[in-house]
Amino acid sequence: MDKTVVFVYGNFNILHPGHLRLLKFAKESGDYLIVGVNSNRIAGTTRVLDEQIRLESIQSTSFVDESFILDENVLEYIDRLKPSIIVKGKEHQQLHNEEEKILSTYGGKLLFTSGEIGFSSFNMLEEDFKSVRYSDIQHSHKYLQRHAIEKDALFKMVENFSKLKILVIGDSILDEYITCNPIGMSQEDPTIVVSPISTKKFVGGAAIVAAHAKTLGANVVYSSVVGNDESYDFLKKYLEELHIDTKLYKDSTRPTTLKQRFRASSKTLLRVNHLKNHNISKELESAIMKDIEETIEDLDLIIFSDFSYGVLTNNLITKISSLGHRHSILMAADSQSSSQVGDISKFVNMDMVTPTEREIRLALNDFESGLVVLSDKLHRKSSPKYVFTTLGSEGIMIYNSKHNELLTDNIPALNNHPKDVSGAGDSLLTCSAMATCVGATIWESAYLGSIAAAIQVSRVGNIPIKKEEILKEIDFL
Predict the structure, then answer these.
(1) Is the dihedral of CA 469, 453, 372, 343 positive or negative?
(2) Potential cystine with 432: which of 34, 268, 297, 445 (Cβ 3.0-4.6 Å)?
């Protein structure tokens, strides 16, 4: 089927919300939007900025598929292009529009829009998904001094991430962010009414842990179980484009877990989860173990990323852990319990675990003891070497089981203005475990993990943290 091509043209001196609304309407009216920016010659005295600056403004928007400097009579260009639709502002509707004559020769349409919608600039919303505001990240110099942590040492550790080969195993999740325009309250019943503006998908769960590890520089093997569905295709393509050695096992009894977040005005209004959380079959367990046994010799680190959706069964955890210990491989684990019930204590003899306060209390069924007591109880129950308890806006508490050293310390949250806290724990787990694996002390690995978490919460959605971002932040020390 041929694409419906939409054409818009104009001077676009200062790209304002009215332009963005017009472009959004134009994009939604067809499949492929082409924008012609009038050249300096065509615009004449009505231009304010140079043609290249005006073109760059159009190219920076998210609606436009193709743009160019229009330096010819627009009617001649339209006659040659023959777009299906031309979109103009509502103010042109009562005027004579020369384009109509050409459009009538081949069945094209002329549409008008006022752009009158309650709409925050889509491109500002897009910035929420990708921009890192380093000014919001405040370092804890007292902590750095307390542990004599040197800037150059941190640089070297991060550079050494490229020497690692890592296995990440756990539950795959797709996070879908649906950005909405809040319209108001329904008059029929007390229901919030919104209109979707954009949809954006990110990998989550264990998949984002694998992505973090890869973009931080490591060679990564990723193992997970997914459904035979459209989300599987998205996940596989995304991970393979990152050059992650991806081993996805299809299970017809479950969908690939999808979490939809409906957001408006930088706040999440509602989350809808599409999932099944029964344990995988014995056959899938055997297939996973067979592949891991074939790659175990080359591994430096195993990261378990558990969301209690059935991939990491107790049997599989025991077998992989035993294999890891026999080959002296460092192991780290997280078992999340944000909207479900996990148990971090089922991961025995780990080098590092990173529970939230709620997760550690659930694992121990203890809702009264202090954090140090909780960490000690978890150590006695499942013997993790290090426990990093994440405390949201209070940062993390570090527990060191080596009692001949400092037992505990804490790092305050390094970003006090988070945009989206989901994914902070995954980035902390990944970066801290990798740092420990290249020889960092517990205090150094906790701080590098805290930097990663601070970067992660500075933007909306799970976006893999790049090594260059960590190095840039270290450079501010």
Answers:
(1) negative
(2) 445
Q: Would you tell me how many other CB atoms lie within 10 Å of the CB of residue 155?
A: 15
Domains and CATH numbers, the chain: 5-117 (3.40.50.620), 134-171+205-253+281-475 (3.40.1190.20)
CA gap 387, 208 in Å, rounded: 21
pLDDT in tens, the chain (477 residues): 478 999 999 998 877 667 888 898 899 999 999 999 999 999 998 787 889 989 998 998 888 999 999 999 999 999 999 999 999 988 788 889 999 999 999 999 999 986 544 333 344 445 555 555 555 788 999 999 999 999 999 999 999 999 999 999 999 999 998 888 887 777 777 788 888 877 888 899 999 999 999 999 999 999 999 999 989 999 999 999 999 999 999 999 999 999 998 988 778 888 899 989 899 999 999 999 999 999 999 999 999 999 999 999 999 999 999 999 999 999 999 998 765 677 999 999 999 999 999 999 999 999 888 888 899 999 999 999 999 999 988 899 999 987 666 688 999 999 988 888 888 999 999 999 999 999 999 999 999 999 999 999 988 778 899 999 999 999 988
Per-residue DSSP letter, 417: S
Give me the long-range contacts of 337-345 (CB less than 8 A, separation at least 24): 337/308, 337/362, 339/271, 339/273, 340/277, 340/307, 340/308, 340/309, 341/308, 342/306, 342/307, 342/308, 343/308, 344/378, 344/382, 345/378, 345/381, 345/382
Within 13 Å of residue 355, how many CA atoms lie on the same side as its CB? 27
Q: Distance between the two ends of the chain, CA-based, in angstroms?
A: 56
Closest CA to 358 of 377, 335, 383, 333: 335
Check: CB of residue 18 under 8 Å from CB of residue 12.
no
Tokens at residue 14, please?
Answer: 């200062």
CA distances from 82 to 4, 63, 78 (A): 11, 20, 5
DSSP 328: T
Q: How far apart are CA 117 and CA 310, in angstroms?
A: 44
Residue 403 makes CB contacts below 8 A (sequence gap 6+) with none
* Class of residue 408 by CB neighbours under 10 A (exposed 0-12, middle 13-18, buried 19+): middle
3-state secondary structure of 133: coil
Report residue 84 CA to chain centroid gap.
36
Distances (CA, A) of 153 to 191, 386, 443, 455: 54, 21, 12, 20
